[in-house]
Amino acid sequence: MKKHIILAVALAAVCTAALAQNPILERRYGTPYEIPPFEKLTVENYREAVLKGMEQEKAEIQAIIDNKETPNFENVIAALSESGDLLSKAGIWSNLNSASSTPELQALARELSPLRSAHSSWINMNTALFEKVKYVYDHRNEYKLDKEEKQLLEDTYKSYVRSGALLSPDKQKELAAINLELSSLQLQFSQNLKHDTNQTYVIANSLKELEGLPQANIELAAKLAEKIGQKGKWAFNMQRASCNPVLQYCKNRELRKKVYLMYNNRCNHDDEYDNKEIARKIIDLRLKKARLMGYKNFAEMQLETRMAGNAKNVYELLDQIWAPAVAKANEELADIKSMMKKDKVKGQPQPWDYMYYLDKAKKAKFDIDEALVSEYLEIDNVQKNGVFYVANRLYGLNFRERTEDYPSFEPTAKAWDVIDREGNVIAIYYSDYFPRDGKNAGAWNTTFRSQRYDGAQRLQPIVLNCCNLAMPSSEKPALQTIDNVTTMFHEFGHALHSFFRNVKYRGTSGVERDFVELPSQVNEHWAFEPEVLKNYAKHYKTGEVIPQELVDKIEASSKYGQGFATVEYLAASLVDMDLHCLEDVPADLDVMKFQAEKLAARGIPTQILPRYSVTNFSHSLGGGYSAGYYSYIWAEVLDCDAFKAYKETGDIFNQEVAAKFRKYILTPGGIDKGSVMYRNFRGRDPQVDGLLENRGLK
Fold first, then answer.
1. What is the pLDDT of residue 15?
2. Which of 161, 163, 181, 522 is deepest in the core (most CB within 10 A)?
3. Are 213 and 248 in contact (CB under 8 A)?
4. What's the whole-model pTM score?
């Protein structure tokens, strides 16, 4: 029996015509490229679709189990990979909960979290199903499988083993309970953080307190204050777009201190949104899970399937960069002390002085004013003539904005057709750049539909970049900082990966966690190349192309501040690893004290705190990058070495190199391991020299 027959029988068992009023439950949306009709969907639609999706997937899996034919790749592994289509389709609610959350969506997340966890455990620890998977795996040499099929079979088998399929029934029950509690705690951690990021404020009572702050930020602070019932004052929430300008430009040291401490101590206020004990419980449960699975700690379990392989390799890389980064940070600290002395500020620099005085020192050293640079970085120009321009020059892509005819999940988000050299629409792209209530902090790439096949037809992925960038004011358009422009290029690198990925099975779409940042980070390298910069950096008033003198200053100053930035990042990475390498989690573990003691022992300058403290470390404690925040620096070794492949040819748009990068890095998904993909592209293993040069640490 073929897989599509198995799935059709299962589908018929759970679908009825009475469900047609829910668009998600219909086979087709009837929209362009089957984009979800966001405006028509309700929270109840999402809830019903998820519940029906789990019901349908159970029926599909039961059909695989009940099939009397001898297990083989087609009727077990391929059928399993294609199961859960409705549940995957219903997953758009989760994207919206991150990008445009409401109290109703957050309540839905709390309701569904334990149900989804129990559903996953039922699948991953299903003895009858695993017996069939194991039979196919044990007989793998008898099948004529292509490269992707072999990888899918191996990944499926190992995934079940790593999910507890070989455990005894009692231990499986214990693991399911741990997974259930973890899913609830991680959700609570994330929802607490969303609250403290969007709904905690620092209030300024007079304009005098805001001296040095750009006018556009003053206006936005006044609007936010009015919105929260503080008309006539100025409010700052903990979105970076709101608080970072205060830290960088505001002369008022006390205001900088208030903002810095509020940001750094999110979810560390001993109130109902405090995450200290939640973080401790998450670390403890992850350790218990690892021990149950036969590992000495959680990091060992996580790293087994990553490029790094083990904690020793991670620490070796981080330690290799730590010493030169601290040395560079101390050089910058000397400049900060000098600037503070000029300002007649007594005492030692504090963490809330770093960004402000580093910016002043940068201006003095390189005669560069980032506020002036921002006047050339209008967001639409950056996107269309920078981000899109590079994609066109490298890969021949064009972008057609769809202003009215595509469904919209958010009025300020823009929709685009992604068109290849042959004129084919290969993806749909949404750019959602501005902060708002209900939106997670930071920046990320996700999909409303990943690339997949419907029979022989490749379905276009529907890709979303979410950021929290500088907003327009009444007098100026949305002018961006250098960091924000870098973020736009970074997230679009992830989008390119989503556009070009071309795999047959959903189960082979993913890459290792420490490889996933390569496409995004390598794309950053083009952002401030002079040839690219001059194409998009035009003054928002005059249209004047950025002058060569300013381009030279940007280049000359580009590595200044990397000591601070690198130490800040490495500190968070090391704390993430230290927590997950614990082999005992005391009941009285104080996670903030643990963080402070570990970093002090490594000699971190007292003026630098980790980019994220434990209580607001969503990457690590919220889920995706647990024992994996090092991935950004691991991938940076790859991306710096990869960009050198272009530079070595003398042409940053070299078509031969770009074609190889697309073929070997962006297209294969998880059909190959990351190390293999990189060697296929570069012809050798990566070298760390490029990273040290790129950060000015060599």
1. 43
2. 522
3. no
4. 0.91
